[in-house]
Amino acid sequence: MPTPAVFVFIQQGCGACHDYMPKFERARFRHPNVTVGVYDLASNDARIQHFAETLGVRATPTTIVQTSGGTHHRHVGSLPMAQIEQLLGQAK
Length: 92
Known about the structure:
By secondary structure, this protein is of the alpha+beta class. The longest helix is centred in the N-terminal third of the chain and has 15 residues, at 15-29. Helix 1 (15-29) packs across helix 3 (81-90). Strand 3 (62-66) and strand 4 form a beta hairpin. The protein starts with a strand and ends with a helix. The protein has helices at 15-29, 46-54, 81-90; strands at 5-10, 35-40, 62-66, 72-76. It has one domain: Glutaredoxin (3-Layer(aba) Sandwich), CATH 3.40.30. The chain is built from 3 helices and 4 strands, in the order βαβαββα. Helix content is 37%, strand content 24%.
């Protein structure tokens, strides 16, 4: 059974990422029990690139919620705070 988690893919120099991450971090602080991974696609780390390809990430920011049932919910682009809170709540 997969562990519930939220994966956020960003990229240095991405304006939408710059807008999104401060909001995401504020919301994340209110959900301390949610496992979160933040991955910079500008990194040369082949593991990050492979993980992003496996999940079909093609744009940044992309947020993927993995539930305990193995379901993935994908959201592309910067989101308002209410939607971020909702995403973090789905990671169960």
